[in-house]
Design brief:
The complex is a heterodimer of chains A (511) and B (367). By secondary structure, chain A is α/β, with parallel strands linked by helices. Chain A contains 14 helices and 18 strands. The chains are: A alpha/beta (511), B alpha/beta (367).
């Protein structure tokens, strides 16, 4: 606990905006990049409008581009104006009054000295109280330079206030590099100072998984192998690889989506109730799920995993190129843009229940959801009129159209006892007129508040890599079972994925 | 008009929504959504008009079942009439549905209203919270009010609309917890000053919080010609949060000066009327907080010429410590309730301030 955190303000108690962090400075590395202008600054601006930014707050952008404070601010303002045309000059000036920019190479110790001087000035003049958050929004290849320089310049030390580091994904490229990165960052920062970000965890519906499971008593008793037939977690993207081919060629869908987003969502669905709603209690339970993933072996990969790559096709009636025709993609690339995994969690609760995980680019629509499919009733009571009953399905839609649907059977009005499947629907958009905060808003706020619940701990990141590495390695060292491309852009992926379903009553959900 | 029963009203609503379904297939559908029940009472036609407008606006924030009750203007009218209207104030994110809800207006003779609570209950959507909005002074002995208040989760008042605010607050402090122990009391006037409370709190975030125990004097400036109630309630909130003990005598009206005792010594609160041009917008204009100790400070919040900006400034040990422009969102009257409905839990800060007010004002003679 730092001195600043001990200074409690009793006037905050009971205010509607009582989750306001103590004064601090936020240093963004990679400040001239897309993430800063498209996500981070808009998120900070929203926090500011909601009066959730600390009163004494300064933002320092660091990047290699030699631009002035004014140019930096102007660039951010223009981006923000695109999002919010009603942004007024006075509002912007008030928001950005303590924004600064420092140009410098990430491996240049002098740049860190300049930063240190500027931060001290801000503490002195703005009352930022020695509290610092360093946000690494750079390509991963410079993470180590920044981390070690923050260490040698003394900026990682929690002297007057706190010092925290936020590390954007990808956290490592494989298990070894993740371990190495963990080691490097832990040499400089203690675990409680490290915030590994996965923006999926900032999404309202992902957090609602915990509320739904643990604030209601009706779900937990049936949330187990006795009642659940299987779980499907899907993250479908309509977009192709776009301008990210450079990154995507070396990562593919497993690194891009599974190691972080899908595994994290699976943890939220599968974890045991934590002993407290507190960062480490929740992360302990998530870790157990990652550790319980039945190991893939080179022999079982083809039985439990299916890969694919999109070819040319049509989306919304428009012809779109195949992956291999995208800019900066190798013409013979075998990078998977589709993956489906059948994961078994070797726990008491989930023994024998397959978790079917699927993510891909160029599917017909963008949609992320969790579907819990329950077992069929043991006895078909209405067999005179009903030959088959659809199983109950609880769908938790993460994006878009956030909400939940419960599919169940009901009697068709009339003189016979026929059954038909109907949906009971809850939509966030109808019950709450207020928009949910953007993921980065929530995560930036939590980091400033020192709440790591929605961030990934080092051992979690490593456990996720460990579980996934056999599939990655196998796929990178063998040719695809069916030649790529093996699914058309705009389709629901390769037909081979059906083999993961195993039972005749299971099918991939059409979203 | 159908014969009067809650079923008749529900039937009319169903018919209303059938008529307004999309004309063509493929057009976005309508979805009736209820997240709350609100019953509002308006004692006259003018208040009724104002309250109805407010309820229409509230549907944008909290789709729900809204019921407005007002007395008939003419004693020869039917004992009870009703009107139903539907509102579809917003779209779902993907524009798949328009979100709709309804307002039921009941116009009744005064003696009918006395016994209208059972009928009103029958119109509520089950299993949803019930909010009762009663603009003006609360008629504690009124049968309709008492029954409704007892069955509601929360009763909304607006202390700025009380005819005799001091007396009414003293009465509420004394009577409410005993008479309606299970019903939360919410004050719209308290929500109006919530931004000021947040701004004062912000002055003392982080390292500045050490000055809180050294506060010597608080000056709150409000628009001349208006009642000092908001400034007074703000001072009571500070007193409660900072454990100041009231040292003065019981008073009949809000005084210009209040004396408290903190751990570090006396604290004086001055409520100062100042001439202003836009008294209607908001009735607090500036707050100054003087602190003592080894490093005396002066913390101020002053409204800027731009009505959406307040300048927050601190001078510590005769040097400027900080100065910043912060946004100030004026809540329009219809947004006040929308803000209040966001949370269902009792506002303990308001309860504490009300009890403190009850200990400062003269005790009410009769209930």
């Amino acid at each position: 606990m730092t001195t600043a955190e001990l200074l409690v303000n009793p006037l905050r108690e009971g205010l509607s905006a009582n989750r306001v962090p103590a004064p601090c400075s936020l240093v963004i590395y990679g400040a001239s990049g897309d993430l800063t202008s498209r996500k981070l600054v808009p998120a900070l601006f929203n926090l500011y409008r909601k009066h959730l930014l600390p009163t004494s707050f300064s933002l320092i952008g660091v990047s290699r581009s030699p631009i002035s404070d004014d140019q930096f601010k102007q660039r951010l303002k223009e981006m923000l104006k695109q999002e919010d045309p009603e942004l007024t000059d006075s509002l912007w000036n008030s928001f950005s009054q303590n924004f600064h920019y420092l140009a410098g190479a990430y491996d240049d110790p002098k740049a860190y000295q300049s930063l240190s001087i500027l931060l001290d000035q801000k503490d002195q003049n703005n009352g930022t109280a020695g509290n610092r958050v360093f946000y690494l929004s750079t390509p991963p290849n410079v993470f180590e330079d920044i981390i070690s320089n923050l260490g040698t310049s003394g900026l990682a030390k929690e002297a007057k206030g706190y010092s925290r580091i936020v590390i954007e994904k990808p956290f490592g490229h494989d298990l070894d590099s993740a371990k190495e990165l963990n080691q490097k960052v832990q040499e400089v920062f203690k675990e409680h100072q490290i915030y590994r970000i996965d923006h999926y965890l900032g999404k309202e519906t992902v957090q609602n998984l915990l509320v739904m499971r643990f604030a209601n008593s009706i779900f937990e008793p049936i949330w187990n192998r006795e009642n659940v037939d299987h779980v499907q977690i899907t993250a479908a993207e309509e977009l192709g690889v776009g301008s990210r081919a450079g990154y995507y060629e070396s990562s593919g869908v497993l690194r891009d989506m599974f190691q972080n987003h899908l595994f994290q969502v699976m943890c939220m669905v599968g974890m045991e109730p934590p002993v407290a709603f507190e960062a480490n209690a929740i992360r302990d339970e998530k870790l157990k799920i990652l550790q319980s993933i039945r190991p893939f072996t080179p022999e079982t990969v083809s039985q439990f995993a299916v890969r694919g790559q999109y070819g040319p096709g049509f989306l919304a009636g428009q012809k779109v190129p195949g992956y291999r025709e995208e800019k900066d993609v190798k013409p013979q690339s075998t990078t998977p843009t589709y993956a489906a995994l059948k994961v078994f969690l070797d726990t008491w609760r989930w023994h024998g229940v397959p978790f079917l995980l699927r993510s891909a680019k160029r599917l017909p629509k963008r949609s992320t959801e969790v579907a819990i499919q329950f077992k069929e009733p043991p006895n078909l009571l209405f067999k005179d009129n009903v030959s088959h009953l659809s199983p109950n399905v609880l769908v938790i839609r993460i994006q878009p159209d956030e909400g939940m649907t419960l599919k169940f059977e009901t009697k068709v009005p009339g003189m016979t006892t026929e059954a038909r499947t109907v949906n009971m629907d809850f939509r966030y958009g109808t019950s709450f007129a207020e928009d949910a905060p953007e993921a980065y808003e929530r995560l930036l706020l939590d980091c400033m508040l020192g709440d790591a619940t929605l961030f990934i701990r080092g051992d979690e990141a490593e456990a996720a890599w460990k579980a996934l590495m056999p599939v990655i390695t196998h796929w990178e060292t063998t040719q695809p079972e069916t030649s790529f491309p093996n699914y058309e852009a705009g389709s629901w992926g390769p037909a081979e994925a059906d083999k993961l379903l195993e039972k005749p009553w299971r099918q991939w959900r059409r979203l | 008009m159908s014969p009067l029963s809650s079923l008749a009203i529900e039937h009319d609503l169903t018919e209303l929504w059938k008529e307004t379904k999309p004309a063509r297939e493929g057009e976005p559908g309508l979805q009736r959504v209820y997240t709350t029940n609100m019953v509002a009472y308006a004692e006259d036609h003018e208040t009724g008009y104002r309250v109805e407008r407010a309820l229409m606006d509230l549907t944008q924030f909290h789709p729900g079942r809204y019921i407005l009750i007002r007395p008939a203007m003419d004693g020869t009218e039917a004992p009870l009439r009703y009107y139903v209207s539907g509102y579809c104030p917003f779209w779902t994110q993907q524009r798949e549905h328009r979100v709709c809800c309804d307002i039921i207006k009941l116009v009744a003779q005064k003696d009918t209203i006395e016994n209208l609570y059972g009928f009103t209950f029958s119109l509520l959507v089950p299993d949803l919270p019930v909010e009762l909005w009663w603009p003006g002074d609360l008629p504690m002995k009124n049968k309709f009010f008492a029954n409704m208040a007892e069955e509601s989760n929360r009763v909304w008042i607006d202390s700025s609309k009380f005819k005799h605010p001091e007396e009414s607050l003293a009465r509420l402090a004394s009577v409410w917890p005993k008479r309606f122990p299970n019903t939360v009391l919410g004050d719209m006037n308290w929500i109006r000053i919530q931004r000021w409370r947040a701004l004062i709190a912000e002055l003392f975030d982080g390292a500045w919080s050490r000055h809180l125990s050294q506060i010597k004097q608080v000056t709150i400036e409000y628009g001349e010609g208006s009642h000092p109630l908001r400034g007074f309630m703000l001072a009571l909130w500070m007193a409660d949060k900072l454990n100041w003990k009231y040292e003065g005598p019981r008073v009949r009206a809000v005084p210009e000066k209040l004396r408290f005792e903190s751990r570090s010594g006396p604290v004086e609160v001055i409520l100062k009327a100042v001439p202003v041009q836009d008294a209607k917008r908001d009735r607090i204009f500036a707050i100054g907080i003087l602190t003592g100790g080894d490093t005396p400070g002066f913390f101020t919040l002053v409204r800027d010429e731009n009505p959406h900006v307040v300048i927050a400034r601190a001078e510590v040990d005769h040097h400027e410590a900080f100065s910043r422009a912060v946004t100030f969102d004026h809540l329009h009257s219809n947004q006040v309730l929308a803000e209040g409905l966001k949370r269902l839990e009792p506002d303990k800060t308001w309860d504490a301030a009300l009890q403190l007010a009850g200990s400062i004002f003269e005790k009410p003679v009769s209930f």
